[in-house]
Each structure stands twice: as C-alpha cells, then as structure tokens.
Amino acid sequence: MGRACGLAALGLALLAVSPAASASDSQAAPTPDLVLASAQKARRAPAKAEQDTRRYAGQAAAQALAAEIAQRRGWEQDWVEHWIGQAQQLPSVMRLIAPAQPGMAKNWAAYRARFVEPVRIEAGLRFWQAQRETLARAEASYGVPAWLIVGIIGVETLYGRHTGNYRVLDALATLSLDFPDSHPRAAERQAYFRGELETLLQLSREQGVSPDAWRGSYAGAMGLPQFMPSSWTRYAVDFDGDGRIDLRNSAADAIGSVANYMQQHGWQSGMPTHYPVRLEASGTDLATLLAPDIKPSFDAARFQALGAKLAPPASEHAGPLALVELRNGDPLQGGSPPSHVAGTENFYVVTRYNWSSYYALAVIELGQAVQAALDGPSATR
C-alpha cells in the first residue's frame, strides 16, 4: 500500500495504504495482511460510476472540516470548501476499508503466490534492465539495494501498470467524513485520513494540479510506489533532475523516493533482512518469542536460548532479532503449519512501508527473484 507507502493506514489496507502507507508514516496506512490482495484488485479495476454517490457540497461536516483546514493553513476558506464539496462519497471505499471478516485465516503460501510469480518477475526484469543506471545511482546514494526497490514497486503497482483509478479526492473525503463507525480504530483512522486529505490539497497547490486530477488506490495511495500524500511531501525526491517530483510518470523519481523512504526509516546498508530459523520440537518459548510481534528484541544468544535455532551467519548476527511467524491457513481445515524467519532490523524497516510481515517478505522475495533472473545465464543484458 507506499502503507510511503502503501499500501499502505488501514489496518493496507489498509493493506494499502501504500505509502504507504501505510500509515504510520508509512505510506499507506498500513495494510492488513489479508486486505492487500483485495486492495490491489480494487486498484486495478477502473472505478465504475457508483449509483449511490453524493457530493459533499453543503454538508455541515464537510464545511466544518474545510473551515478547520483553511484556518490552520491560512488558505482561502472558499477554495477549501469548494474542493471538499466537489468530492463524492464512494460506498465502495467504505466497504473496502472494512476489516477482514473474522475466521479468515492468513495464508503465506497463497499470499506469496500472488506476487512472486513469473509474470511479475518478468516485468521486474524488464523494469530493472530499463532503469539499470537509475537503480544503481539510488543504491549508491541511499545505500538501499536495487532488488528491494524493484520488489516494492513490483508488489505495489506491477511497475506502474496498476496505480489506481479512484479519484483520490473522493477516496480521502469519504474516509475523512464517512469512515465506518464499525471499524475498531475508526476515530484514529478518520483523523489520519483527514490529515491525508489536507496534505492532498497542499500537494495540489504546490504542484499546480487540480485536486480532482489525482488518481490512486481506494485508500488514497498514488503513483508507481503508492505513496500517500503525506509520504509524498516528506520522502519523495526529484531523482531525474527535471525540477519537479512526479511519482505518477517518472520511474526515476519513484526509484529515488522509495530509496529515500527506506533510508529515512533506518535501512542499514549491508545488513540482511532475515535468516532461516529452526524451532525446536519441544522447549521453544513461542509466547516470549512472539510477544514483541515483529519488533527485533532479542540478541542471537537469547533468541536461541528460547528455542529458535540459528545457523551461521545468523547465529553471529550482532543486532536484535525478531521471530516472524507467517501462517499458512488453518491447520484444522487443511492448512499447513506456520512458516518462521528471524527478522533483522532491516526486515522491520520494510514493514514501515506497509505494516505487514507478509507484505515485507513478499517484497523481499520478489526483488531477490528478479535479481536472480537478471543475473541468470538466460537474462538479456
């Protein structure tokens, strides 16, 4: 989802909510593990006219929000009120933002198969070959490996093929003014999207773009890297040197911006993202290992003492580690046992783009698969 993004804020939402993310600063508001696939499906399909849409013009809540934004920013209230009033409520956005239904088991194998597959790898190979010099320059400038940048853009938008057809003004106004009350974090998420709507108006003024011209995901993530408006203003860079930042049409700007996003969130050059791990058949203290979630919290010695065994070089890793668990469906309904990896601080950094360990590992494995194809004997150079 960008959650930059993003796909990133949704819970993507909020598997996308791409930058973003999500959101934290992450692009999108981050995205719930199970929602990314449906979020990207929604991005791919052109937004169809919705029968129940209505404009926000004249609504008291919209006018109050416009007055608040105008006062805080020192903008003309009529201008803000006009554009928020032009936004349409999108029922489909309200449905897509809803949390996954209870009982839907996460499945890493199925999730991985959506992104680490021949079509996406081939598209990534062509993207890398076309952008070889730009990717090398980004890696040299920011210390972020080209394969990771390629993996992120590939998962987010299939290298620009699916950047979203929702009017971002409509999507963000809907999530700012009609965020579903049934969502467990409704107040927090609504406040987040109000900030993103305000930033979209700021971006429009700065770039001389009409606020209704932006297109993106149902959560408001835009461009090749699916940056949310706030990630665009914080982390996007003019990497092609043409004097403007264009994440919608400039692959170079997207590449440099993803690299800058990762660097700003703490990427450490040369550190692996994760290592294989073997759990002891008995004696593994899963409760303790999983308590910090994916936040690296254990040194290698403590990690192994709790029953998560590592082989060199993982056993000699100097920084903290986290046990990352990825479920493979419900074992009681034909699913397989969970998969596990030992995540480093760099793995955690990838989850700042989208708050999902499933997303992070898919990005990593896609990027590495594309690099393997590039380096392979059959690759066209």
Automatic annotation (TrEMBL):
<dbReference type="InterPro" id="IPR023346">
    <property type="entry name" value="Lysozyme-like_dom_sf"/>
</dbReference>
<feature type="active site">
    <location>
        <position position="156"/>
    </location>
</feature>
<dbReference type="InterPro" id="IPR031304">
    <property type="entry name" value="SLT_2"/>
</dbReference>
<dbReference type="InterPro" id="IPR011757">
    <property type="entry name" value="Lytic_transglycosylase_MltB"/>
</dbReference>
<protein>
    <submittedName>
        <fullName>Lytic murein transglycosylase B</fullName>
    </submittedName>
</protein>
<dbReference type="GO" id="GO:0008933">
    <property type="term" value="F:peptidoglycan lytic transglycosylase activity"/>
</dbReference>
<dbReference type="Pfam" id="PF13406">
    <property type="entry name" value="SLT_2"/>
</dbReference>
<feature type="signal peptide">
    <location>
        <begin position="1"/>
        <end position="23"/>
    </location>
</feature>
<feature type="domain" description="Transglycosylase SLT">
    <location>
        <begin position="60"/>
        <end position="368"/>
    </location>
</feature>
<dbReference type="InterPro" id="IPR043426">
    <property type="entry name" value="MltB-like"/>
</dbReference>
<dbReference type="GO" id="GO:0009253">
    <property type="term" value="P:peptidoglycan catabolic process"/>
</dbReference>
<keyword id="KW-0732">Signal</keyword>
